[in-house]
Amino acid sequence: MRAPRTTRPSESATAQRARLPASELTRVRSIVVAANNRVNGAQKPVLLVGAHAVAAAEMIASEIRGALKRVDLSAVVSKYIGETESNLKRVFAEAEAGGALLLFDQAEALFGKRTTVKDAHGRFAEADVLLSLAARHASLVILVSGHTVPLPASLKGRLTIRKFPPRA
What is the rounded distance in angstroms from the CA atom of residue 144 to the CA atom of residue 53? Predict the structure, then answer.
């Protein structure tokens, strides 16, 4: 597994704003307000989907002004039973120790189709682990996917899903 990068917000926030259309800035700010107003650290992870999802995620992290631990989910997901869960627990422990927000890039690696798994329970077991860990994490957890991923209702209810850009 590649080591996740931890970064601090920087002057690149201005560059990120420039890449997001003005209509999407209000949506980003509403996510930031919700993150800042969470009760006892309890908050659903945010799944950002679309062409501007990464820019929106980086801007959210910049607005919250916390350390950002960026994790490529495709590097965390393993074909071996239990290894993905161990990798996720390690990532969350490191982020917790540093008080970092988590940004999971390539979320489709966790939610996407897998040919070796025959049922939805096995297919989404790793997503369930991630969402359970996220529910206990003190800081915001953001998942990013370049395109919409099909999710069962049981997982959709545990996420705040925002599209960037929104549907017309």
Answer: 6
